[in-house]
Amino acid sequence: MALVTDLLNWLQELPQPGLVAAAGGLVLAECTIGLGFIAPGESGLLIAATTATSVPRFLILWAVVTVCAALGDSIGYALGRRFGPRLRETKLIRKYGADAWDRAGAVLERRGAWAVFFARFLPVLRTLLPAAAGASRLPFRKFLPATTLGALCWSIVHISLGAALGEAAKKVEGALNTGFLVVAAVIVGVLLFFLLRLKKRKALAEPEPKAEEEETAGTPQ
């Protein structure tokens, strides 16, 4: 059965608005500090991207995900602006990303708004750096263009990758289904060959009957 193809076809038949909304929601949650450590935004986007089989679907998903990613970053920035360095002392940050928080602050000091752009492609930092940017008082007029550009590039890379993986999976499965009988026949043939060879070796290794036993067997009782 073409399980992968059936699954991809099922995903593509789902209502497009709901699928796009779910992908956007997961991305927004991943980019929002506090939820970013548990929300599978990147995985959800790759799965949703397998349905981007046409230009309109691709563009709609790209636009929604970009907006949600930038919005999630902006929420994180606002929280960092509001609570400042005290965020580092919260249980959540101390448990999941205290070291990453420190790295984010160090990168911000060296790179400024460019750190916001590049952090988009790095797990954990993607969640923490917007809040760290707010806590470090990076001006929002510099933060917003950087995070929007990062979201644009990150989303198009992942959507393209998901769409390509979906098409590749269909082609690979189709090839496997077409050549399944041939491959199975080859495997069975190889197994039979080695089985017969093993039996032949065992037969040659058995000792020959002793001459006395042959004479005894040949003497009438």
Automatic annotation (TrEMBL):
Its main location: membrane. The chain crosses the membrane at residues 59-79, 143-166, 178-196. The keyword Zinc does not apply. Keywords: Cell membrane, Membrane, Transmembrane, Transmembrane helix. It is found in: Cell membrane. Pfam families: VTT_dom. The keyword Nucleotide-binding does not apply. Residues 54-163 form the VTT domain. GO terms for cellular component: plasma membrane. Belongs to the DedA family. PANTHER family: INNER MEMBRANE PROTEIN DEDA-RELATED, TRANSMEMBRANE PROTEIN. This is DedA family protein.
